[in-house]
Amino acid sequence: MEDKTKSNMLKIIVFALELILGVILLINPVGVTKVIIISAGILSLIYALVNIISYFRLDPVTASLCQCMFVGISLTAAAIIDILALIADIVWELKNKNKSEK
Hints:
Radius of gyration: 20 Å
Structural class: mainly alpha
Strand content: under 5%
Helix content: over 70%
Number of strands: 0
């Protein structure tokens, strides 16, 4: 019975968070999307660093089987692409802002 109560409570919390996120998306869709993309990039970079560090800490046989280095390098590449897209977006906004001021 207690597991069912916890499950229902979790469903209510998830519903409330989805509702709040939906309202925020309706108010400012571009800003929220940027925050989500930046957060995904930061989390990818952190997870990549953890995988790369764990690769070097494992014994050689386990390290070769876990593919930690591949995951770490792939996520680092994704995070770099995310950062470059963010920089390009900032430059684009500054460029358009300067054009509108003239």
